[in-house]
Design brief:
Layout lengths: L3 E2 L8 E3 L3 E3 L6 E3 L3 E3 L4 E2 L7 E7 L9 E6 L4 E6 L11 E4 L2 E12 L2 E10 L4 E7 L10 E2 L12 E8 L6 E7 L9 E8 L5 E9 L8 E7 L4 E6 L3 E6 L10 E3 L8 E10 L2 E8 L4 E6 L14 E4 L8 E4 L11 E6 L3 E6 H4 L4
Parallel strand pairs: 5-26
Antiparallel strand pairs: 1-6, 2-5, 3-4, 6-29, 7-8, 8-9, 9-10, 11-12, 12-13, 13-14, 15-16, 16-17, 17-18, 19-20, 20-21, 21-22, 23-24, 24-25, 25-26, 27-28, 28-29
GO molecular function: inositol hexakisphosphate 3-phosphatase activity
Keywords: Signal
Protein name: 3-phytase
Length: 359
């Protein structure tokens, strides 16, 4: 199937207005939530098995040549690479990965005295962290770095969610790794410091274990706000949990939000920066084909008070992962791009201004 490009304008955005509906039997009023429905501008060419999570690499020399990296989740899986038209860049695809779930990107890891952009994923079936350079997608991990070593619980080493954090103070880069299931004692996520191994690759050193888990369903989606220094993750049956990203700041849970209004699973998390510490946090309401939007900065009195702003109905089916950027990429994505996985082996590209209440 070739990629589908939909040229849509404002007419493609349908706004279902909030309304007060009178119940004629008891004269009570109920208020329905405002939900905006949006269609994608581009749908990618399909992967082979099962899309799960995307990440956006911004080309520092020419943003119009940026790339989307997405997982194909299977025991014969891959990291697919797409251009901004949704076409697969075949010579950059990494094949033969053992069930990669999520992917994330960070910029400027020092390897051999050079600044290298990296893509991180995890192989569920081998329990290995996998790292590749960008944009050439060459391995940096010697075939895989074992994680969750010493864990013996069933599926306690089966990798799922991943995220990267670059600490502004010193440029140190950390990998946050999640798994299919884990303990409820506050050690579900493990965080590793990534460094040059002296041989042209990367080594990973465990620096902390943190993160509460309800024991209900699982934890997959993880997102990091580098600038503000927070980690967010979806405890799928409960809500979104928030922690400090810097391991030196401790393991206190700062917030649990997005606990109401979800059809079933809490999934992908994306963070959009509008400047001055403000912006939006988007969370996938998976079974409703919606993304719920919360203020990145919290409230006027509490930076950890994230109250629902609105919901957006999209065309994705059972969306697990998503990513968003505020970069002006090209004439189509002048204010940024939102990329969301769909359960039909594709990723969908949206204009940021169609998704978010920017004005």
């Amino acid at each position: 199937m070739k990629h589908l490009r939909l040229n849509i304008g404002l007419a493609a955005i349908i706004l279902f207005a909030a309304a007060c509906q009178t119940n004629t039997t008891n004269n009570t009023e109920t208020t329905t939530e405002t939900v905006k429905a949006v269609k994608p501008v581009i749908v990618t060419e399909p992967v082979v098995y099962d899309t799960d999570d995307p990440a956006i690499w911004v080309n520092p020399e020419d943003a119009s040549k940026s790339l989307i990296v997405g997982t194909d989740k299977n025991e014969d899986g891959a990291l697919f690479v797409f251009d901004l038209e949704g076409k697969i860049v075949q010579d950059k695809v990494v094949r033969g990965l053992k069930r990669p779930n999520n992917v994330d990107i960070a910029y400027g890891l020092n390897i051999g005295g050079k600044s290298v952009d990296i893509a991180l994923t995890g192989e569920r079936m081998t329990h290995n962290m996998r790292l590749f350079s960008l944009p050439d997608m060459q391995p940096l991990d010697g075939g895989g770095i074992p994680v969750f070593e010493g864990e013996t619980g069933v599926e306690y080493r089966d990798l799922m969610g991943v995220a990267l954090y670059k600490r502004p103070a010193d440029g140190a880069i950390f990998a946050i790794m999640g798994r299919k299931t884990g303990p409820t004692d506050g050690t579900y996520l493990w965080q590793y410091l990534l460094e040059d191994n002296g041989q042209g690759g990367v080594k990973a050193t465990l620096v902390r274990k943190f993160g509460m888990f309800s024991g209900n369903k699982e934890i997959e989606a993880i997102a990091v706000d580098d600038e503000l220094g927070y980690i967010y993750y979806s405890d799928e049956g409960v809500g979104v949990r928030k922690y400090y990203a810097d391991p030196e700041k401790g393991n206190e849970e700062l917030a649990l939000f997005a606990t109401e209004g979800f059809t079933d699973d809490h999934e992908g998390i994306s963070i959009f920066d509008t400047g001055n510490g403000k912006g939006f946090i988007l969370v996938s309401d998976q079974q409703a084909s919606q993304f719920k939007i919360y203020p990145r900065e919290g409230s006027a009195t509490n930076p950890h008070d994230h109250t629902l702003i609105e919901s957006v109905l999209v065309s994705t089916v059972e969306s697990d992962g998503s990513e968003i950027s505020n970069v002006a990429f090209n004439a189509t994505f002048k204010r940024g791009i939102f990329v969301a996985m769909s359960d039909d082996k594709t990723f969908q590209y949206y204009r940021v201004e169609d998704i978010l209440p920017l004005d």
